[in-house]
Amino acid sequence: MGLLDKEFSDGNILIANVEDLLNWARLSSVWQLGFGLACCAIEMMATSMSHYDFDRFGVIPRNTPRQADAIIISGTVTLKMATRIKRLYEQMPDPKYIISMGSCSNCGGPYWEHGYHVLKGIDRVIPVDVYVPGCPPRPEALLEGLMKLQDKIRNESLRTKSA
Amino acid sequence: MKNAEEIFEILKQQFGDAIIGIDKDTPTEPIISVDPLQIHKVGAYLRETDGLKFDSLMCLSGVDDANGTKVKDAEGYEFIQSGTLSVYYHLHSVELKHKITLKVSAQREDAKVESVENVWKTADWHEREAYDLVGIVFLNHPDLRRILMPYDWADGSHPLRKDYKNPEFYQGMKVPY
Ligand code: SF4
């Protein structure tokens, strides 16, 4: 349901409904908070590099939560860090999205039993939109996760907020 | 360059009863046991004396020996009573290229060991870690705070103790799986 595949009927005028236009704008520029946690963050960085090129989907790392649309929880969330993540999440303006990347942030990962210091799933602290499984997930998997998030944004409605 | 027995003899002469013994029957290198309240003096001597010159503390580790008796409390939770906690010091002399391992043991319920922070600066964070995770208190340490766990982690809760019990919640977050 792209916007631009519609025929231009008259000069420069494009007819679309506001919802589609807004969603299209949002999903095409998901700016992520520049934030990495453990081994998964290495894979997230690889995704940003030229080979996988996160930027072609409109994902640019931002240095402050005030300018970020999404946060990728990429790695082991310790209890100490969880309090900080919550603070960062609260500082992000709406609409905001969360991708949980890797087993650690999904459910505690390898630390699920003996990790006295690990939060067993970031969804105990903040609401997650997309879970990407893997330890670590390959960049392809993270890209797939991003596209899932884009699908979700594409179907959002202005009247009811889903996230 | 000196071997462990020679170093032990030198220390024994200098410090007498503060040097408790030498354990040669270990899979790795011999270990010299020292009085926990004299370790800073022994350390300073090892560092400064000609022919010893241990200028580098390679590692300082806190260990829960778990050699006490296991007791169950009212809720059926098993914990360890009495026994010891130990600190191991791995020393190296860059100049003379020899190594030695020291060990101090303190009572589990009241584990107090003199800090060697003013002998080797490396010991600062290592001792904080041993305090944080095993619960050994280093006397005369300039800044004995937790280093890895959050500062507001429950007092007396040291995760690498063998009878450690994880709390149910931390700041409203559920901890167990
Ligand atoms: S999920 Fe695996 S790769 Fe990712 S942070 Fe955890 S341990 Fe590291």
Description:
With 163 residues, chain A is α/β, with parallel strands linked by helices. Chain A is built from five helices and five strands. In chain A, the strands form two sheets. A three-stranded parallel β-sheet of chain A has the order 3-4-5. In chain A, strands 1-2 form a two-stranded parallel ribbon. In chain A, β1 (32-33), α2 and β2 form a beta-alpha-beta unit. Chain A is elongated and about 65 Å long. The model of chain A has no long low-confidence stretch (mean pLDDT 88). Chain B has helices spanning 4-15, 39-48, 123-134, and strands spanning 19-23, 31-34, 56-64, 69-72, 78-81, 84-92, 99-107, 112-114, 137-139, 169-170, 173-174. Chain B starts with a helix and ends with a strand. In chain B, the strands form four sheets. In chain B, strands 1-2-7-6-3 form a five-stranded mixed β-sheet. Chain B has a two-stranded antiparallel sheet with strand order 4-5. Chain B is of the alpha+beta class and 177 residues long. The mean pLDDT of chain B is 91. The longest helix of chain B is centred in the N-terminal third of the chain and has 12 residues, at 4-15. Classes of the chains: A alpha/beta (163), B alpha+beta (177). The A-B interface holds A 79-80, 82-83, 107-108, 112-113, 116-117, 119-120, 124-125 and B 148-150, 159, 164, 166, 170-171, 173-177.
Biggest sheet features of chain A: 3 strands, parallel
What would the principal axes of the Cα set say about the shape of chain A?
A: elongated
Measured on Cα atoms, how large is the radius of gyration of chain A? Answer: 17 Å
Number of distinct helices of chain B: 3
What portion of residues of chain A is helical? 25-40%
Q: Which blocks of ≥5 consecutive residues of chain B have pLDDT under 50?
A: none
Strand content of chain A: 5-15%
| Bound compounds | iron/sulfur cluster
> What percent of the residues of chain B sit in helical stretches (DSSP H or I)?
10-25%
The helix-and-strand class of chain B reads alpha+beta
- Specify which chain pair forms the largest interface: A-B, 14 and 13 residues
Rg of chain B is 18 Å
Low-confidence stretches of chain A: none
Global mean pLDDT of chain A: 88
Strand content of chain B: 25-35%
Please provide the count of β strands of chain A: 5
